Amino acid sequence: MVDTYFGANLVNYNTVNVFLFSSIQKSDHTPINVVINDTRTVKLEMKKQVFLNGICLYTCYFSEGFVLGNSYRIWIENYGIIPVNVNEAIDFPNFDEEYNYTGNDLGFTYSKKKTVFKLWAPLASKVAIMLREDAQSDYVIYYLKRGEKGVFSISLNGNYDGYHYLYAVTNSEIVSYTTDPYGKASSANGKESIVVDFEKTKIDLHDNKLPTYNSYLDTIIYELDIRDFTIENSTNIENKGKYLGLVEEGRKTKGGHPAGLDYLTFLGVTHVQILPFYDFKTIDELSPSTTYNWGYDPQQFFVPEGSYATDPNDGYSRIIECKKMIAALHRKGIKVNMDVVFNHVYEGFLSSFEKTVPGYYFRKRKNGVLCNGTGCGNDINSERPMVRKMIIDCCKFWVEEYGVDGYRFDLMGILDTTTMNRILKVCRDIKPDFMVYGEGWDLNTELPSERKASILNAFKMEEIAFFNDTFRDILKGPNGEDKLKIGGYLSGNLDYIEGFKFAFLGCCLDFVYPKRFIKPSQSINYVECHDNFTLYDKISSIYGNGDVNKVLDIIRQINAVVLLSFGIPFFHAGQEIGLTKYYIDNTYNKGDYYNMFRWSTLDERYNMSIFLKSMIDFRKNYFRINSEEPDVIGKMNLFTNLDNHLLAIQIHSLDDKDYIIVINPTDTKINYIFDDYYLMVCSDGGFLKNSDLYVKSSMISAHSTFVFEKKAASNV
After folding, report:
1. Phi/psi of residue 426, each to 5°?
2. Using CA atoms, how far apart are residues 225 and 274, in angstroms rounded to an integer?
3. To 5 degrees, how large is the angle CA 416–CA 421–CA 425?
4. Where are the alpha helices (DSSP H) in 180-242?
5. Using one digit for the tens of pLDDT, what is the confidence trace for 658-704?
6. What local confidence, expressed as pLDDT, does residue 58 receive?
7. SS3 573
8. Are 121 and 152 in contact (CB under 8 A)?
9. How far is CA 255 from the centre of its chain?
């Protein structure tokens, strides 16, 4: 009818609100009816009428009760028929209890004789699966049967290996076409889910080659991006920008230095943290060289990213090649931490989650507006049982199927503490030394502060670590474009000396500042990561671009202190050789020029890589922090302020050894005098592994950190 609009929203299981706006007034005698499953019609009981600015709102009662899973339409004679919007049911009392599905079989369960498909869609009245043998075939449509807890399922006899599929989900009589939220394989660019036989993807992941770490403090993390690390032309890596690029051994730079996998082995890091390699949205997988993104725009959480695969349209290619990458790293004794982004998706309203269960997966303000603490417009509603289940199921899947060894959570503070602790338990049941850590920023989302997985609640997540921005800012200076020229203790702001002591001890003691952590293994000690300015850009901005050697000396010193501090050492690929991003602070979509690891620079500054390698060796094999008790750590360390803001740190009984660390962050070398003979073990050249130089005094170079080990006089 012209100039007539009306709609209907479910208020509770017996009540529907109908609003009507029309140029023709509805008669009081005209009934409002509900049409059920297009088979019968029932007159609703009018409970209340409200008229406001030409809009009529009718509150109607349905004695039978609305039952989710049925089709309901409101019919008013002479005005038309419209569907009942049932989406508000997700917030009805007991909804989570009534529809909390605990089975472990969502998605597809494949065998050669049959495949079972299951989809959780409690609001839906109908779900159909659209199947085709390949991308060129026609679809065959089957309707799923609704079961308990709102799970739709179908069992199809036959071998469906390699079949492509979509779901057609009818919510509030609106049909949406979507990939499987639990899909494990995909065609290019996430167009369709694909059934695969995971037995065909089985390879030796070489878990038996991996050491076991008793403490996070025994680990050293190196962050890289698959594309960035292998894409530059100055190596003979063949599969540039691909999973397989990190599999290749014997690869060299033009200068003859180790590249790719061999370089990681050369450095001696214990873990690589790889930027997101689940399926993300904004890379054209069929033409990856034309687009660029780090992958913080999730699309399919259970599926590896296709732009890193040699054939993104082949459902198996990305799975097998991703596993080969992980297996190659494991074979070298290097564990793999996966960067995961469960705080948001790329486009919430177009995601498989929203199409399947509208409104359920994303957190809202009290006024109904989506929360935007992530800055991406759709904060994941992790405290809801089926959202939490999805996250935990996904985390478990990547450990069991792909053998990942840890998770780095992007914007972890958006999630809740219960979810994070459960993830840790599930993963450690599989791998006892599994790592979980993330960004604990306290973000503005509709979740009580005491429930956020933020750094403020570190004491509620004792085995989860956090990126320590206090450590970062005190060592190198604060982040931010407006603070680019402001230094920290090791970059010119010597007044930070007292704060440096707090940072050095892992921020786990009430020492100058209130403690942030209950133990040092909660502190990810970093000064550079994939976003924000590189360390080189920060230091050269503070000191100007004139003296590159001075900037590199400071970088070496900062890297050494990261490894000597109490906490988990963390490095971003290229930090060790002073790579630049040309003073751009967030290059997530800026392309290869700004982001690639420049192996040509490695050739020019190979001595800096040797320096980091030597200091990693020292940390791993000699300078092993053997306590996580803050009181013990406090008694182990004695700080002495020297002239000109230099600092000496005496560390007693560290792995049964006594050390003195002398830190000189100034432009002037100084002579340090000991009260006994000490063996020089680290200098501005790095770890002196076979040193037999015993001294009672030593000249400490400008912008350097020296380490001395106390020896009995009889050994001198």
Report:
1. -60, -45
2. 6
3. 150
4. 226-230
5. 999 999 999 999 999 999 999 999 999 999 999 999 999 999 999 99
6. 93
7. coil
8. yes
9. 35
DSSP letter (8 states) at residue 416 = B
Q: Fill in the amino acid letter for 384.
A: R
**Contact partners, residue 31, CB within 8 Å, separation at least 6:** 43, 44, 76, 77
pLDDT of the residue at 646: 96
Other Cβ atoms closer than 10 A to 3:
8
Q: Computed from CA positions of residues 404, 406, 409, 412, in that sequence, does the dihedral angle turn out positive or negative?
A: positive
Q: Residues with catalytic annotation?
A: 410, 439
Alpha helix locations (H) across 590-705?
Answer: 592-595, 599-604, 606-621, 630-636
Give the chain's largest Cα–Cα span.
Answer: 109
DSSP characters for 37-66? TTTEEEEPEEEEEEEETTEEEEEEE-TT--
Residues in CB range of 73: below 8 A, 6 or more apart: 34, 35, 38, 81, 82, 83, 84, 173
CA distance 193 to 118: 13
Dist. CA 331–CA 345, nearest whole Å: 33
Q: How far apart are CA 120 and CA 146, in angstroms?
A: 9
Q: What is the CA radius of gyration of the chain?
A: 30
Band of the pLDDT at 2, cuts 50, 70, 90? Answer: low
Q: CA 47, CA 298: separation in Å to the nearest integer? A: 45
| Separation CA 597–CA 588 (nearest Å) | 14
Residue where the block lists tokens 């990856």: 288
Do the beta carbons of residue 538 and residue 585 sit within 8 Å?
Answer: no
Strand partners, 680: 708
- CA atoms lying within 13 Å on the CB side of residue 542: 24
674: Cβ contacts below 8 Å, ≥ 6 apart: 660, 695, 696, 697, 698, 708
> How many other CB atoms sit within 10 Å of the CB of residue 574?
25
Query: What's the CA gap between 556 and 575, in Å, rounded?
Result: 9
Position 656 scores a pLDDT of 84
Instruction: Give the DSSP H/E element, type plus range, for residue 427.
Output: helix 417-430
Reading phi first (left if > 0) and then psi (alpha if -120 to 50, else beta), residue 359 is in: left
* The pairing of beta strand 72-76 with beta strand 80-85: antiparallel
Q: Helices 417-430 and 385-402: crossing angle, nearest 10°?
A: 30
Distance, in Å, from the CA atom of 490 to the CA atom of 476, rounded to the nearest integer, reads 6
CA gap 716, 714 in Å, rounded: 6
Mean of all residue pLDDT scores within the chain: 96
pLDDT band at 329 (very low <50, low <70, confident <90, very high): very high
Q: Which residues are registered as beta bridge partners of 474?
A: none
By DSSP bridging, strand 32-36 and strand 72-76 are antiparallel
